[in-house]
Amino acid sequence: MPTIVASEVQKLVETLLHRFGVPAELAEVQTSVLLEAELRGVASHGILRVPRILRRIENGVTNPLATGLHDWTSPGFLKVDGDRGLGPVIATRAIDAIADRALETGVAVAAISNSNHVGMLAWYAERIANRGQTLIGFSTSEALVHPWGGGTAMIGTNPITIGVPTDDGAFVMDTATSIVSMGKIHDYANRGQVIPEGWGVDASGEPSTDPVAVKVGAISPFGGAKGYALGLAFELLVASLTGSALGRDVLGTLDDTEPCTKGDLFIVINGSGGALSAYLDAIRALPPANGFDEVRVPGDRAQSTRAQRLAQGIPVGAEVWAELLQIAEATASKER
Amino acid sequence: MPTIVASEVQKLVETLLHRFGVPAELAEVQTSVLLEAELRGVASHGILRVPRILRRIENGVTNPLATGLHDWTSPGFLKVDGDRGLGPVIATRAIDAIADRALETGVAVAAISNSNHVGMLAWYAERIANRGQTLIGFSTSEALVHPWGGGTAMIGTNPITIGVPTDDGAFVMDTATSIVSMGKIHDYANRGQVIPEGWGVDASGEPSTDPVAVKVGAISPFGGAKGYALGLAFELLVASLTGSALGRDVLGTLDDTEPCTKGDLFIVINGSGGALSAYLDAIRALPPANGFDEVRVPGDRAQSTRAQRLAQGIPVGAEVWAELLQIAEATASKER
């Protein structure tokens, strides 16, 4: 695995986006969300997404210039038509707008449709918590998860993020409602390894430890019936308020040719934060259970990985990196 | 187990509350939340709570007359000092106020502190969804749940509820972030049965299947690290915005003498709902997996239990019912 310094990753991705028609300011936002995922060890939301993003621009299903059409349907409700724009560009402009509005109204909502893959939700939660405000965010995805008690993929991996300002920086939680990402299933398949029991079912709905079978079957919700309930509730919440598609009608984050029909929902609440860090430190100071070397708070591992990777570089997938370099070479003449 | 018709349960609980100084209108709200829990099969949030509610009024830590002090700190943010009132009374008045406000502003938040146990959160989600609006609700509780990787109770059972209006009635999801309720642990202990592996740890933080040991230890979060992350995020979110206590400083829902220091947070978003029922019906129509007789949507089982119990009566705990009758007899002279 090649190890690349963050600035070099950033430069290459920004260059590629620029060559495909993304203005510099917008390319910077898209790149930042991908790069932060790499820095935090969330490779599934990192630069492996770049070739698809470029192909979608080429195919006309992503608009590289769009920043979103804002419609304040009431003082606290911002309806955003993403105009087929880059997910992070549309979402960042939307959350900044509702964070500004929440300074006056106390709370504001952005309901985004017609926008592309939003990337790692934690990025948005941290951005707003660093402003001293609270963010709750949801996004939907292609149907990859089966309901509890049924074996067919009908629900997105539907993540939730929560960012809360504290007296010691932002607390950020970000989790999918699937037990694992489809990216990890692909990863096991590529390495020819079996997956743990409970991660998914095959196309006939039977539990399977064969990642190749689960790829065409469904991932399980995390935590059984409760995780299923959460994932389904997020699907309905987002679809109801954004007008996005539901279940198997969601397209456009895993393909190169379909307009993206998922939705994103963000709520920003104006809050002063509070003296929360003593509580978090008390949790960190607990004696670890058997099999654990420490008790972590959500975000701790990501932050330590981030610090390490900023200092020592990012281990990136050899194939992905080679592909990006190849696209760079093939498009060198496009330099503007 | 005696089976009692709903109207009789309602009458007895309202009578008792009235005798302890709760005005009729407020007693009706508190009773409705308890009764709906019984009707839906959530006994842990039903009439077994009544003796404690009455003792807390007697001990002066619950104010039977309070309806909450409302302070609109901004157009969309309602700060509620519960004035030590009955949880359902304070919460219902708060959500009605923010639901009205959201008609104008698009979204509004109620941050409630100094209020008693709020009961089954689904009740609030359903109330608002039935108005054609969306509700997201959170509440905290005494520290009963251990962090993932640590064996000490530091986090509440912190439930979330989501209510979404659909073209076929309210969709309501309500789940705690603990794998099981402490009420169920007590139930196993009372019956002398072992609990399933993974439900909790003993006082030394070791996993245990002895409910008596887990009662003084900690319940596990549902879904491992992800459920832990959610429960902790909800704890911080609620405490940050309501000013309620954190972790082991939360008191007053499991005792008779401490002012209640947990918080409740509700968000109402004005939304027209949508044609969601075809999607839910498609999920229900899936072939059930092995070991399941049907694929259910959250709320389905509660609604079918409710219909049955409305028709055939509610099986209530013999001891609880006897205790309520005994209190009724002892307080007969208090009839006003």
Question: In terms of topology, how is this protein built?
Answer:
Two copies of one chain form a homodimer.
Chain A lengths: L2 E2 L1 H14 L4 H16 L10 H9 L10 E6 L2 E9 L1 H19 L1 E9 L6 H8 L4 E6 L20 E7 L2 E7 L6 H10 L8 E2 L9 H5 L2 E2 L4 H19 L21 E6 L7 H8 L15 H13 L1 E2 L2 H13 L6
Parallel strand pairs in A: 3-4
Antiparallel strand pairs in A: 1-11, 2-3, 4-10, 5-6, 5-10, 6-7, 8-9
Describe this structure in words.
Chain A is of the alpha+beta class and 336 residues long. Chain A is built from eleven helices and eleven strands. In chain A, the strands form three sheets. In chain A, strands 2-3-4-10-5-6-7 form a seven-stranded mixed sheet, sandwiched between helices. In chain A, strands 1-11 form a two-stranded antiparallel ribbon. In chain A, helix 1 runs antiparallel to helix 2, helix 1 packs across helix 11 and helix 2 packs across helix 4. Chains A and B meet through helix 4, strand 4, strand 6, strand 7 and helix 8 of A and helix 4, strand 4, strand 6, strand 7 and helix 8 of B. Chains A, B: Keywords: Oxidoreductase.
Question: Main attributes?
Answer:
homodimer; 336 residues; alpha+beta; Ribosomal Protein S8, Chain: A, domain 1; 17% strand
Helicity range of the residues of chain A? 25-40%
In CATH, what is the homologous superfamily of chain A? Malate/L-lactate/L-sulpholactate dehydrogenase, NADPH binding domain
Major β-sheet strand ordering of chain A:
2-3-4-10-5-6-7
Number of individual domains of chain A: 1
Tally of DSSP helical segments of chain A: 11
Quaternary status: homodimer
Largest interface: A-B, 74 and 75 residues
Query: What is the overall silhouette of chain A?
Result: globular
CATH architecture of chain A: 2-Layer Sandwich
Distance between the termini of chain A: 31 Å
Radius of gyration of chain A: 20 Å
Count of DSSP strands of chain A: 11
- CATH topology of chain A, by name, is Ribosomal Protein S8, Chain: A, domain 1
How are helices and strands ordered from N to C of chain A? EHHHEEHEHEEEHEHEHEHHEH
- Mean model confidence by pLDDT of chain A: 96
